[in-house]
Amino acid sequence: MTPLTSSYLIYILSFSINLSMMLTRSIGNSKHRTALAIFPLLLLILSPLEASALGLGVSPGAVEFKDVLRSGYAEKTVTLSTSSDEPITCQISAEGPFRNWLRYLPGETFTIPPRSQVKLKIIVEPPEDIPNGLYDGYVVIAIIPKGREGGGMGSAISAAVSVKSSIQISDVERKHFFLIGQPTAVDSEEGKPINFYFSFENDGNVRLYPKIHIDILSEDKTTVLKSIDYSEKILLPTARTDILITSQNDLPIGKYWGKATVYLDNSVLYEYMLSFQVLERGSLRIKGNLVKVELNKIWVYSGEMVEINATFVNEGVLSTPAVFNGKALLGDGIEALVKSDEVEVSPGETVELASYFTPKKAGRYTIIGKVQYSKKITDEKSTILNVRDISEKPVTATTAVKETSGSGIDMVQAAGALLVFSIIVGFVLWRMKKSSRKRGNIKEEDKLSG
What we know:
This protein has about 450 residues and is of the alpha+beta class. The chain has 5 helices and 28 strands. It has helices spanning about 5-25, 30-35, 40-45, 50-55, 410-450, and strands at about 55-60, 60-70, 75-80, 90-95, 100-105, 110, 115-125, 135-145, 160-170, 175-180, 185, 190, 195-200, 210-215, 225-230, 240-245, 255-265, 265-280, 290-295, 300, 305-315, 320-330, 335-340, 345, 350-355, 365-375, 375, 380-390. Strands 20, 22, 23, 24, 26, 27 and 28 form a 7-stranded mixed β-sheet that branches. α1 (about 5-25) runs parallel beside α5 (about 410-450). The relative contact order is 0.13. Residues about 1-10, about 45-50 and about 395-410 have low confidence and may be disordered.
């Protein structure tokens, strides 16, 4: 896609919207005005073509919120990505009956750096008096041209993509949450706190307070040295929540076990034995821990990119650079090596070290790796990736827009068709206006002759 083609597409979209607004103001018939007023929305729905030309993509293209309670909470995350060499400013809005129920993180307006991704969290908080039912609409991500940031949504839009959205309001409560990965106990020094890390996701629709009980055991697991009870942090429906449990440490140097039990109400959901050590003071000046390795998707098709996130915690007292080095294994063979960017991690800070892998073959992959920091290396952590062959992917009704590496003639033809469509709609409505005036004059003449 050449810069000339992209500019041409922006011009056509802006012209079409402005033409629609001009005709809307000039037509007196309220029905005709209403019909034409929805024309910019139609252009907005068609404008993913233009957004593709500017290198803006969104995944997934639809989100579904099920069994959301009145005055409840639910969230979904979509990934916005751009291949543009320039930063893109985006503005978020919604079309549909739920537009006032939504809020967004990192906000309604934000900037995507060149050739990068941004996670957009869509949060639903329905009012308490809304009837049960299914509510459909769209979340619209619009690109704001340079110099027009902070303006309105109308003529300031150069392109947009839409995420089809549906929200099901229900009065049936579902109470459940699950543990993400394995909880972790980290080594400590004499007199320093002992830390336990848990990650949960609430897959129900009710706000929950998990109860966690930890018995700290001797190395031979025969003696309970101390106990911890925790039930302080709320788990919001559909949301992921990280919990840090800290215990005062009066233990001597040695190896210990933490027996962690997780409850929902009075039912036991999980039990884990977690090992940790108490070391002499000064041993952990530079100390890091690879907590887990996760994927943004565990089922993909061949040729589909996967994001690998390695969670690293700096448990030392000095800052350290950290980089994740991993590999993708298929059977006994190494299919690819992956590496994150190097990140400077402050004491006590937790970071996600992101790397990417595109599987070329179907199969069950093991993604395994470790973090290198300050000439030290963490233990390895791994996760599983399941890959289907691309030939098995269902054919959808949506037609993909393919960018060409040449002059972009397909995009130009499509934009030209959009321009012709705009002119035809304008002409038809002008004729409707003219006919309406003519019928009005005839009626007036009949009255006078009568």
